[in-house]
Amino acid sequence: MSESTEATERREQILDAALRVFSLKGFQKATNKDIADAAGGISPGLIYHYFTNKEDLFFAIIRERAKFVQLAAHPESFMDRDPREVLTIFGHAYLSALTSPSTLALFQIMIGEVLRFPQLREALYRAIIGPVFDVLVRYMQRQIELGTLRAHDPMIGVRSFVGMLMAHIMLREVFQQPEASRVSHEAVVTQVVDTFLNGLAAQERKSVRA
Description:
Blueprint: H1 3-29, H2 32-38, H3 44-50, H4 54-65, H5 67-72, H6 83-99, H7 101-113, H8 118-146, H9 154-174, H10 178-182, H11 185-199
Helix pairs in contact: 1-2, 1-4, 1-7, 2-3, 4-8, 6-9, 6-11, 8-9, 9-11
């Protein structure tokens, strides 16, 4: 096994262990020793070889395990593509990231701890949430320029789109509403994208009188 391959595997091992520990103890109570033990008894100091600190490790899990964050990291791949296609892709990536067993714990940690720890909330926004929103705002602005979406405040538009998805996640994962649990991701994303785009169609439909 090459040195680079071994380093990659060890890094993934630490990420997996950290996710398990964060899931059990939360961000604030988890220690590097806990993570090192969960990673097979490695030295806690070895974690610093791969990550600057616990915060860096936490954010690395989100960046590398949440697909919608990975998509936003490469805006050049979708900036001029059709809104229905792009928003559908993002919608599925967003729901999958926040409802899959492997990353749901991160969502629960964020909801539970960012309210109590302003420093974590601010760092999370700067490192993850803010950049993703900025990319989506730029995408909306680009589509306005291309004429595929009518003129609107792109930041409000992005908040509205994400908000509809977040409402479903809250009802399903936090309040465990039966109806939200039964509906498929496909149905949710299709409905959200339709509702959003019908409100921002480039040309208003003529009203039909009875």
